[in-house]
What does this fold into?
Amino acid sequence: MTAISKLRLGLAACCLLAASGCANKEEPAAAAKAADVPLSCIAVLPVLPAADLEDAASPADHKALAEGSQVMNGLLKEVLAGQTKVRFVAEDQTAVSGAGLSQARQRVGKSGCNAALEISLSRYAERVGGDYGVKRPAAVTFAYKLYETGEGRVLCHGRFDEQQQTVMENLLTLPKAKNRGLTWLTAEELAREGLQERLGQCSYLGGK
It folds into this structure.
């Protein structure tokens, strides 16, 4: 065997070893990603009104967010009805502030649940008008996060942001418009639809 042949053979062996090493490193990562976290129960915190930091929220906006948060607390109990692992943290145990949220998280630890669901509401605008004609459509924006309380690992998260539009304004709304019966939704109806849609995408909350 010539020196060149030996060199080629050595290079081929090195390439095979390198490929084998890379394959072995990828397997544990894929397994960890696919693994589910076993949950004892899920503590659902009261919805937190959170004005958009990019905009100057008026007193009317703060009032709308506070009222909308109360509406969404009721909707959460409706949307998550039948979920045996869900536990709701009492609303009167929290305040609309960072300190209140911190206290609520402490109560999650005492509840025995190893997961918590947090939702922040940054827009809640009621429609101005009726079912078939409006001067201003309803608008709702919220974000949710389901996380494991031990290591803080985020299990599911998502955001809903919609101001209802006509089909003429956006053809992509046609499927939704048909499901809605071509009517203008109230803010509560839009929030219910958003919660069902977003939370329904999380397997830990009974979704896909």
